[in-house]
Design goal:
Strand content: 25-35%
Oligomer: single chain
Largest sheet: 7 strands, mixed
Structural class: alpha/beta
Shape: globular
Order of helices and strands: EEEHEEEEEHHEHEHEHEHEHEHEHE
Helix content: 25-40%
Distance between the termini: 13 Å
Length: 311
């Protein structure tokens, strides 16, 4: 099968198209013929070699960890799924990713794509949607009536976080440049702060939960706006500053996504009920050039919504 791989760490130039062995389904797996995948920052961070201490894999490495497509083969122990089912998934993080025509997925990580949802819309969800779900609910314990600050609301993760938080009955504050304010209000944001003109730490106080997707100074200033004693900060960029959290009498936690088919199915059900939608900001064809261009866009940190690859 055709795949886009890396045979060494480096810039976008290390992406190459090559023939690799098609995966076979192990006993508790299915093989998915991909119709779409999507780009996430982990893709190019891993490509650059930033994560090689965490994932010390041999080459070639197939990047990509969002799958949407049709089941083409099922393993001997699989009973819940059938060949021909439309599914999507955040597969386990292995060196056999989704920049390929086929990928193997553990059956418990699959969710059904609703009939009303396209492969492109589905492919945008798994990594970003599950990251938002776990940050807000699994770790952030967001409750109805609380106020949440979601940084970078126009990003891939931020857009799902706004919609999920609104669905949960929270008061939703987010940051974004002015051109994206109208879109974020339409997704459910109650207050949008223009980070280019305003300092959120001078405007906000008594926030119950901060979802940090930025790190650095944004994270440092976030401690100042949290409600003392009960405020929580959840970050997806490294480890938080526990000393700073302690000095502000709040809690802080760094998280790493855990693939979860059951949570993904809950998101799928919300999409079917039109409570949540994917915002696909750009699509590129599955090819070496398509993925090169998609990485270039993702690396600007200014893509709106998700970047999707179509097969």
């Amino acid at each position: 099968m055709k795949a886009v791989v890396i045979n060494q760490y480096g810039s976008k130039d290390v992406l190459v198209e090559q023939e690799v062995d098609k995966p076979r389904a192990e006993a508790n797996q299915v093989v998915v013929k991909l119709e779409a995948t999507s780009i996430n920052p982990i893709d190019w961070k891993l490509r650059e070699g930033y994560l090689k201490q965490m994932f010390d894999w041999e080459f070639p490495i197939i990047l990509g960890w969002d799958a949407a497509g049709v089941i083409s083969e099922i393993g001997s122990n699989v009973s819940k799924w059938n060949v021909g089912d439309r599914v999507f998934s955040r597969p386990e993080t292995t060196r056999f990713g989704t920049y390929a025509e086929y990928t193997a997925v553990d059956e418990h990580l699959l969710a059904k794509i609703p009939d009303s949802i396209s492969y492109e819309e589905a492919a945008a969800v798994p990594l970003a949607g599950l990251t938002a779900w776990q940050a807000l609910f699994t770790h952030g314990h967001l409750k109805e009536g609380e106020t949440v600050l979601i940084h970078a609301g126009a990003g891939g993760v931020g857009m799902y976080a706004i919609q999920l938080a609104k669905y949960a009955g929270a008061h939703v504050v987010t940051t974004a440049s002015e051109k994206n304010h109208e879109l974020l209000y339409s997704l459910g944001a109650d207050q949008v702060i223009d980070y280019k003109k305003e300092r959120f730490e001078e405007i906000l106080k008594e926030i119950d939960l901060v979802f940090d997707t930025m790190g650095g100074g944004v994270a440092e200033n976030s401690y100042k706006v949290l409600k003392p004693n009960t405020g929580r900060l959840i970050t997806i960029v490294g480890q938080p500053d526990h000393d700073m959290a302690k000095s502000h009498h709040v809690s802080a936690k760094g998280i790493w996504l855990q693939p979860d088919g059951d949570q993904l199915q809950k998101i799928a059900d919300l999409m079917e009920d039109e409570k949540i939608k994917s915002i696909v900001g750009a699509t590129f064809p599955f090819s070496r050039q398509g993925i090169y261009d998609a990485h270039a866009l993702s690396e600007t940190h200014h893509a709106v919504g998700k970047i999707v690859i179509t097969f």
